[in-house]
Amino acid sequence: MTVGVAQHGERLDRALVELVPEFSRSYLQQLLSQGLVSVQGKPAIKAAAKVKAGDQLVLEMRPTLQSQAFRPEPMAIDVVYEDAHLLVVNKPAGLVVHPAPGNWSGTLLNGLLARDDKALTVPRAGIVHRLDKDTSGLMVVARDRATMDALVALIAERSVKRQYVALAHGAWSGPKTRTVNAPIGRDPRNRLRMAVVDLSVHAGKAARTDIRWLEGSDEGCWVQCTLHTGRTHQIRVHMASLKHPLVGDTLYGGAPVEAMQRQALHAYRLAFAHPVTGQALEFQAPVPQDMRQALALWGLGYNAP
User: Fold this and answer.
1) Is the dihedral of CA 198, 204, 206, 210 positive or negative?
2) Which of 119, 135, 189, 300 is packed most tightly, with the most Cβ within 10 A?
3) Measured distance CA(100)–CA(177) in Å, rounded
4) Cα dist. 270→46, 112, 249, 274, 284 in Å?
5) Is the pTM higher than 0.70?
6) Which 3 state secondary structure label does DSSP give 190?
């Protein structure tokens, strides 16, 4: 390509964004850092170098990890329900839902692409909501675009009922049922975490969780959590705000307990009206073994689904 008058005197990286608008700035910067851009026949070294009108640029395209991530990878998927329009899966702890930096392969999305040819025709292989890597439990996945759009709308209007069970540190006190209505945003002191924030000071979104005490001991409490919103790490943040961080959740103040080395959170119940047939659907997934072992250690779990 040739640098035009409009790009004369601009930084090389900015000129590239204007000359190759079909690709993102971050992708073009990656190519530049890999030595895949030349100016006047010489490899470009500095993104800040100024270009001149008439300069000849050569850009060599290379696939990124992200562009190669959306490929089928056969894996065992625990499907608890399936019809022509959707499926419900029971995700194990440790499985990443969607490709992202650090996890470009081996995700649930990759497995769905390998399992069903229809998944190739739907954005994100039909995934409409996510669970954290170390959270286990139920997820609904669309098998066609119309169903996906309908499920997204149901979630937005809070018509999909999602209930979790969690094991947390600390003896429970006060009422057996609590509602935490506290906005969540990026923790201003640690960008890797989320936190309850003051919206007048920090960016965030409204978040509501209903929490019901099921059992307890001096060491901790076994609770049921019902989501009314779907913010990142919502239950983990709200429980920590009550001084009851989840067992195994070291990011928010929890600590492992023998077999429970991940956050003790399980999406055990999912209920919604089928977006095509209107049929009322409800599913439950049993509590995983590592969580049962942690419950037994504290003499709990009699009410485990």
Assistant:
1) negative
2) 135
3) 36
4) 52, 20, 23, 12, 7
5) yes
6) coil
Q: Which two tokens stand for residue 196?
A: 């309850």
Query: What is the b/e burial string over 270-299, where b = at least 16 CB atoms within 10 angstroms of the residue's CB?
Result: bebebbeeeeebebebebbebbbebbebbe
Is 210 part of the annotated catalytic residue set?
Answer: no
Please give the Cα distance from 237 to 215 (Å, whole number): 21
pLDDT at 30: 83
Structure tokens at 179: 């509602």
Quickly count: other Cβ atoms within 10 Å of residue 7's Cβ. 23
* Catalytic one of 132, 134, 187, 249: 132
**Which residue type does 172 have?**
W
244 C-beta neighbours (distance < 10 Å), count: 22
Question: What is the residue type of 178?
Answer: R
Q: Which residues contact 277 (CB under 8 A, 6 or more apart)?
A: none
Q: Where are the alpha helices (DSSP H) in the chain?
A: 12-19, 25-33, 108-115, 145-156, 234-241, 289-297
Q: Which two tokens stand for residue 133?
A: 């890597």
